[in-house]
Structure formats: structure tokens, C-alpha cells
Design goal:
Blueprint lengths: L1 H8 L25 H8 L11 H62 L5
């Protein structure tokens, strides 16, 4: 009986031909703690009896997934920050080099112009 009630409440297609009627059509949340419930929530057999809510188990799995993903993203942030810093240093070096070349070119033009005799 518990398996049927559990199957109907979870929408299991094996129990589509079955139904549960409540007094005065009351809406109920069916909770059946059978072996199927334990297998779904805990997985492989474990010694001892543990009761864990379905929602809590699903939430905990999602939390674990999010924590793992956050760890990967944190590592990526560290790597990307290092790359950004390196790129910034390269830009600074190239800017300094470009300024030096421009200044040298300016000095050559100014010196060459001042050394060129002006025709009278």
C-alpha cells in the first residue's frame, strides 16, 4: 500500500491506473518512508538507519555542486588576474619604449633642422 501511495504522489507512471481519495477531497502531502525512499535518498546501503528529507538531500547536492563550481571560478579569477597584471606591465613597458623612440626621433629632427644651413 505504501509503495502505491508513494508512486502516485511522485507521479510514477507505473501507478497511473491507481488513485487515492481523501476525506472531503482534502489535499495532502504523502510521505512514505519505505525502502524505495531510502534508496532514492541515501543510495547504496549503509549501516544504521538514517532519515533524510528528499528536499534537503536535493538541496545539499545542489549546494555541493555550486561550491565546487565556485572553487573552479575562484581559481580562474586568480589566473585571469595574473594575466591582466602581466598585460598591464607589458603595456607600461611598451608605452615607455614608444615615448623613448618618439623623443629620439624628435631630437634627431630638431638637431638636423638646426644643423642644416639656412640658405640666404
Amino acid at each position: 500500500m505504501g509503495e502505491v501511495v508513494d508512486g502516485i504522489s511522485r507521479g510514477d507512471p507505473k501507478f497511473d491506473h491507481c488513485g487515492v481519495e481523501t476525506t472531503d477531497g482534502a489535499r495532502c502531502r504523502y510521505l512514505v518512508y519505505n525502502q524505495s525512499f531510502v534508496d532514492r535518498l541515501i543510495g547504496p546501503p549503509m549501516e544504521g538507519i538514517f532519515t533524510v528529507g528528499e528536499v534537503d538531500t536535493t538541496r545539499q547536492q545542489r549546494i555541493d555542486e555550486v561550491i565546487a563550481q565556485a572553487g573552479k571560478l575562484d581559481a580562474k579569477i586568480v589566473t585571469d588576474d595574473a594575466r591582466v597584471n602581466e598585460a598591464g606591465q607589458n603595456v607600461d613597458k611598451e608605452l615607455k619604449r614608444a615615448k623613448q623612440k618618439i623623443w629620439k626621433a624628435y631630437e634627431l629632427v630638431v638637431l638636423n633642422v638646426s644643423l642644416v644651413p639656412i640658405p640666404c
